Amino acid sequence: MQSSHIAIIGAGVVGLSTALSLQKAGYKVTVIDKEAPGMGASFGNAGLFADYARLPFAKFAMMCKMPGMLLDKTSPLSMQGSYLPSLMPYGWGFFKACFPAKYVQGKAALKALQEHTQQADRDLLALTGAADLIKSEGCLGLFATEDGFATAQQGDLKERREQGVNLQFLNAKQVRDLEPDLAGFHAGGVFYPDTRFTVSPLELSRRYAHHFTANGGIIAQDEVLAVKPKDDGVDLRLSQHSVSFDRVVICTGVASKALLAPLGVKVPLVSERGYHLTLDIGDKQLSRPVGWLDKAVFLTPMADGVRLAGTAEFASADAPLNPQRAETMLEHAKVMLDDTPEIKSTWVGSRPSTPDSLPVIGPLEQHPRVSVGFGHGHLGLTFGAITGQLIAESIQGQTPSVDLTPFSAARFS
Ligand SMILES: Cc1cc2nc3c(=O)[nH]c(=O)nc-3n(C[C@H](O)[C@H](O)[C@H](O)COP(=O)(O)OP(=O)(O)OC[C@H]3O[C@@H](n4cnc5c(N)ncnc54)[C@H](O)[C@@H]3O)c2cc1C
């Protein structure tokens, strides 16, 4: 048993995974969250353990497309005007990340994480008895036109294949054989046989939290107002009082930027909001997540209905839900299903996104008793377990299984 007491701030999928890894390593661990576990971005994701996602978003070709996409109200990309000033450091970072050398470094860093991810989350699922929440049916990414599919085959899909991703190209008939209830809106697409998905992101967080507390971990519901490192520990100022720990790990998703700023750590983190609609699709059935890649929406069959997830809306985390975004997504779902599904619920939440698409993981240079795990953007579910493992390894003084240099907060200074 380690003698240190470590606090994790944030009970999303990243904080909970980190708590479990540290508990397994023998530390006394307390998780502090202002909400119940799993109610942040981790509540609303599309459920994919996206093993294929190894390419950063930032590329000059993407940057050139962005102004047109922002003007098109039906595109997946949108921005709240008043959020523009907060986007400036991110935009500059995105521009720098577009240079080919940076892109290649980013690809290598994501590939290195992915190579350890599957084992890390299989271990976590086995530890917590949550494997029944995961399905291994692969995932489909479809294109509306032959041209779009052909372009992708020469672009992103070629790059992924070169990175060792297991993928198959399917024509429209082969897709129909896999998903007979899907409408014929597409010209085929890509099948990733190794991709898994969860039927309930919330239940997954709850299982993690349950295992953690059943094994002596403490979950406290409170807001951390300030993190104050000192020579022999770290004080946390909570809503009513302060508490001291030997070490602290900040896993507060999109809120991490504000907690870190007073420590002199500046990160160009933004709130990239995504939406989901829970749909009742009647007698129709889907066996796996299906993405319409031109529209950047996914339909994932979950325990409480089919989750239609997507959209990248750069807006403050507390901005009201924009019904127009939800309506646009619903229009896409109607085409995918050739039907009008019933909406059971609508949700919006903030992906914690960095300009180079890489999460921020590891101890802070200036404050070695404070570690961080945030900024996972579109891939927090996928990279939760490996993030926890890497943070635990670094806190134990071991050489982390993946080189943490590309993920350091210092890369932004
Ligand atoms: C629509 C959508 C679809 C997505 N699909 C996928 C997908 O298919 N696959 C995938 O891998 N990823 C996906 N993602 C991304 C993924 O959901 C996120 O990257 C991930 O949930 C981030 O987890 P987190 O633990 O860092 O943050 P969160 O889940 O947001 O957790 C942070 C926690 O910190 C707490 N907190 C914040 N500030 C404080 C404070 N001061 N004091 C105390 N507590 C605090 C919050 O209450 C919250 O519970 C998707 C995201 C969205 C929005």
UniProtKB/TrEMBL annotation:
What is this protein identified as?
FAD-binding oxidoreductase
Which Pfam families does the record associate with it? Answer: DAO (PF01266)
Q: Which organism is it from?
A: Pontibacterium sinense
Key words, A-Z: Oxidoreductase
Looking up SUPFAM superfamilies in the UniProt record yields: FAD-linked reductases, C-terminal domain, FAD/NAD(P)-binding domain
Q: Which GO terms describe its cellular component?
A: cytoplasm
Q: Which InterPro entries match?
A: FAD-dep_OxRdtase, FAD/NAD-bd_sf
Query: What Gene Ontology molecular-function terms does this entry list?
Result: oxidoreductase activity
Q: Which residues form the FAD dependent oxidoreductase domain?
A: 6-393
Q: Does the keyword Transmembrane helix apply?
A: no
Top-level taxon in the UniProt lineage: Bacteria
